[in-house]
Write a sequence for this structure.
């Protein structure tokens, strides 16, 4: 996650005028930029999916209750 984020940050321009153009540059001109961008996005999505799954398991098993 950190490696893909740093790689994307090296090519991203966070201004209103150039943000979309910099994403297009990453997708088209950077070697495997399309794969790095999608890997970064999907890793983040799966991370939050597993966090919510873990929270749901805790709620289902009642792990928030004080032990007797």
């Amino acid at each position: 996650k950190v490696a893909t984020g740093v790689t994307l940050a090296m090519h991203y321009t966070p201004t209103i005028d150039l943000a979309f153009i910099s994403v297009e540059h990453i997708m088209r001109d950077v070697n495997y930029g399309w794969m790095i961008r999608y890997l970064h996005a999907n890793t983040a999505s799966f991370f939050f999916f597993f966090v919510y799954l873990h929270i749901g398991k805790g709620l289902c098993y009642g792990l928030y209750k004080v032990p007797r």
